[in-house]
Amino acid sequence: MLYEDQVREEVSLWAKKLFKQPGMLEQASKKLGMKVNSLIPQKAHDAITAAVRTIVKTTLFGAEYTPKRKVTFTTLEEADRQAKDAISLYRKIAAAEGAGTGAGGILMNVVDFPALIAIKMKFLFELSHIYGYSTTPFSERIFILSVFQLAYSGPTERQRMFQRIRNWETEKQQWSSDVNYHKNMDWETFQKEYRDAIDFRKMLQMIPGIGAVAGAWANYNILEELGETAMNSYRLRRLAEATQRRPVE
Questions:
Q1: Is pTM beyond 0.85 here?
Q2: What is the distance between the alpha carbons of residues 212 and 13, in angstroms, rounded to a whole number?
Q3: Element (H, E) at 118
Q4: Tens digits of per-residue pLDDT, 167-191?
Q5: What distances in angstroms separate CA 64 from CA 7, 44, 60, one per listed residue?
Q6: What is the number of other CB atoms lying within 10 angstroms of the CB of residue 80?
Q7: Which residues neighbour 109 within 8 Å (Cβ) at sequence distance 6 or greater?
Q8: pLDDT (tens digit, 9 = 90+) per residue, 225-249?
C-alpha cells in the first residue's frame, strides 16, 4: 500500500471520530464546566476574552510565533515524521508549563490560560512550516486559526471549520486580506467554546495538593488533541492538493 493511501484511511477514521457523539463523561464534564463558569464573575470572563483576543491578533498580524525552521516541501511521509517529533516536543513543553502553574494556585492558573494558548499557536506555526506552508500570507494564518477552532469547538462550529479546511483551496480566496476576518469574528463565542472544551481538565489543576500533577496531565492531553487535529488537517490539505495535481488518464 502506498503511504498516501494509508494516510487517506487514517484521515477518514479521524474525521469519523471528530464527529462522534459525546459520551456520558464528556456530557457530564461539560455540564460541570458550565456550572462553574456561571459562578465566575463577568470581569474574569471579560479578562479571558481580552487575553484570547490579544493572542489571536498576535497570531494573525504579528511575527511573534513565526518559527526559525525554514519552509521545506518534503514528502508527506517525511512531513508526518517531523510533525510527530514536534508534537512530542510541544506536549512536554505544555506539560512543564501546566505543572508549574498548577503548583502555584488559582492566581497562577489565570496566567496559565493565555500561556497555554501561546504554546499551541507556536506549535501550529511550526507545523505549518513542516508541511511546506509559509506562515507569512494572511490566509495561512487563518488556516492555523481554523485548525485551532476545529480542535476546540462545539459540534456546529466544528463542522464549519472542517468544511473550511477540507475545501481550503476555494476557501482561502476570501482570506487574502483581513476584511472578512474583522467582519465575521465573534470573540465571545470563540473563547467560550475553547474554554468549554478544556474546562474539566483545567479545573482539576486548581485543586490544592494535586494541581501540579493535574496541570501537567491536562496540558499534555490538550496539546495531544491539538496535535492530532492539526496533523490530520495538514494531511487532508496535502492529499487534496496531490489529487488536483494528478494527471487525468
A1: no
A2: 34
A3: helix 106-130
A4: 999 999 888 777 767 666 676 677 7
A5: 32, 26, 10
A6: 20
A7: 101, 102, 202, 205, 206, 211, 215
A8: 999 999 999 999 999 998 876 544 4
